[in-house]
Specification:
alpha/beta; six-stranded parallel beta sheet; five-stranded mixed beta sheet; 17 helices; 16% strand; globular
């Protein structure tokens, strides 16, 4: 085993604020497809996770293809000092000439000698490590005995065999839950915001929530592995991302309770998200309205400028990130876009209950993917913009369709009031680009 370590280098319920939309999506069937899929694997989550947990390191145990994916997707320069690498499974490991566990131990020791700043090490499984049955769970336990308390070692799977790419974050956070300290039984109620957010967005949410009156507040994942939040029966969980099913289940097994809420995309979603948190702590919605009024007014005004480019335009979502349903709700209700089809890799009805209720009646939902059939539906509907993965974007652009890379919606700061117009801009920009190209072509 060699190392690439650049040391320098279920139907939606009738819930919602607007009674006119409550009938929403309850009676609409969901098209379930189980065919060929076009998605990134869960290793991609390392790209934003390693930026969030600032003293953690992610060591992928995989092939050279895994290494190339992470390096190229993250855009790492040779002079950078990233906090991820790949322990490459080579021919000696596959042939049994070398003991893969001994090789892994050697790579980990070498890494930790060179990088004493690492306080948490994730051993990340991949398709190749799972195919050869390398037990990274036992490896993590073995190495933890050697390196604790200086370094905490945890493992999770980033394999793309049966997952989509955002599930890498879900697997990572779910693996961290057993490491969280237990909150005292007599502790007062606390709020845990769950989901990886850019620091600027996290700071904005923290200001709003504390101004509303929620003082005992933590975020998961934390910025430091030494600041893991305590969890217990008095912990209330507020999801910031819709793809964290395993993480929520693990937190609930520790006694925490999830707050039912839509997701904080756009003015409407962010307001309802904050109101749900406030209600869980006995705080009236009027307090939320008072605290958030300036931000709401700024965001609403900024969205009006983007609405001119998007109102009445049609959008088609290929399944990719599990953000599709909240984003479709935002585009439809706040920007006036028409939803031709909203595909999602997995439809977690309980977590998306309010989002589903807010979708326009008759919205076509699809779960899973049979990519050729979905491509045929997309071409037949000829939407103004298609949200899809990188593997489909260029071919569809060549056919004359306007596309938006789904993965950009995960990498960019898009949650909350201050980012609402930026989120809308991500959809408006491709349409403006297409219009400019058409004008230039006509002039020539």
């Amino acid at each position: 085993m060699s190392a690439v370590i650049p040391i320098r280098a279920e139907a939606g319920c009738k819930v919602g604020h607007d009674a006119g939309h409550q009938a929403g999506h309850d009676a609409t069937p969901v098209l379930r497809e189980r065919g060929q899929r076009e998605v990134f694997c869960g290793l991609t989550g390392i790209i934003w996770l390693h930026r969030k947990i600032q003293d953690a390191f992610f060591l992928v145990v995989g092939s050279r293809t895994c290494a190339h994916l992470i390096q190229s997707a993250a855009g790492v320069m040779i002079f950078a000092e990233p906090r991820f690498a790949t322990a490459i499974i080579d021919e000696r490991d596959l042939a049994g000439i070398a003991d893969a566990n001994d090789e892994l131990d050697r790579v980990v020791r070498r890494l930790l000698e060179r990088r004493p700043d690492i306080k948490m090490l994730f051993l990340v499984g991949s398709c190749p490590s799972e195919v050869i049955k390398l037990d990274l769970s036992r490896a993590a336990q073995r190495l933890s005995r050697e390196f604790l308390p200086q370094v905490r070692i945890v493992n999770y799977s980033g394999s793309g065999i049966e997952t989509t790419f955002t599930q890498g974050e879900d697997a990572c956070l779910a693996a961290l839950v057993p490491e969280l300290p237990a909150a005292p039984v007599e502790a007062s109620a606390s709020l845990l915001v769950v989901g990886c957010l850019p620091d600027v967005v996290e700071d904005q949410f923290a200001r709003h929530l504390r101004a509303i009156g929620i003082a005992d507040l933590q975020f998961f994942p934390p910025r430091s592995s030494r600041s893991l939040p305590a969890v217990g029966p008095n912990t209330r969980v507020l999801l910031a991302q819709p793809f964290l099913g395993d993480t929520v289940r693990a937190l609930e097994q520790r006694g925490a309770r999830r707050i039912a809420a839509p997701f904080p995309f756009g003015v409407e979603g962010t307001t309802a998200w904050l109101e749900a948190a406030a209600a869980a702590f006995g705080i009236e919605a009027a307090s939320v309205a008072r605290v958030t009024q300036p931000a709401r007014e700024r965001a609403t005004k900024a969205l009006q400028r983007q609405r001119a480019a998007l109102d009445g335009r049609s959008v088609f979502f290929f399944p990719d990130s599990q953000l599709e349903i909240p984003l479709a709700r935002f585009l439809s209700r706040e920007l006036g876009m028409r939803l031709t089809e909203v595909g999602t890799p997995y439809l977690h009805r309980e977590h998306l209950r309010q989002e589903l209720a807010w979708l326009p009646a008759g919205t076509q939902l699809s779960e899973g993917q049979d990519v050729e059939k979905q491509l045929d539906r997309c071409r037949a509907q000829a939407p103004d913009i298609v949200v899809c993965g990188l593997g489909l974007a260029n071919p569809l652009e060549a056919e004359g369709l306007t596309t938006k890379w789904a993965i950009e919606l995960v990498f960019s700061p898009v949650h909350g009031y201050e980012q609402a117009a930026d989120l809308a801009e991500l959809f408006a920009r491709p349409l403006r680009r297409r219009a400019l190209l058409a004008t230039e072509t006509a002039c020539n």
